[in-house]
Amino acid sequence: MPTLSERAADCKSAIQRSETVRYEESLKSKPVRIGIIGCGSVLSAYMKLLERLQAKGQAEIVAACGRRNQRRIAKQLGIANFTTDADEIIERRNVELVLVLTSMLAHGPLTRAALKAGKHVLVEKPMSVDLEEARELAELARRSRRHLFCAPFTVLSPTFQTMGCRIRRGDIGKVVSARGRYGWAGPSWGSWFYRPGGGALFDLGVYSITTLTGLLGPAKRVTAMTGIAIPERVVNGKTMRAQAEDNAHVLIDFGESAFGVVTTGFTLQQYRSPAIELYGTKGTLQMLGDDWDPDGYELWQNNMGSWQLFKETDPDWPWTDGLRHAVECIRGKARPVVTPEHAFHVLEIMIKAQASGRDGQARAIESTFEPLHFEARIEAEPAHLVHDRTRKK
Question: Given a cut of 50, is residue 2 above it in pLDDT?
Answer without folding.
Answer: yes
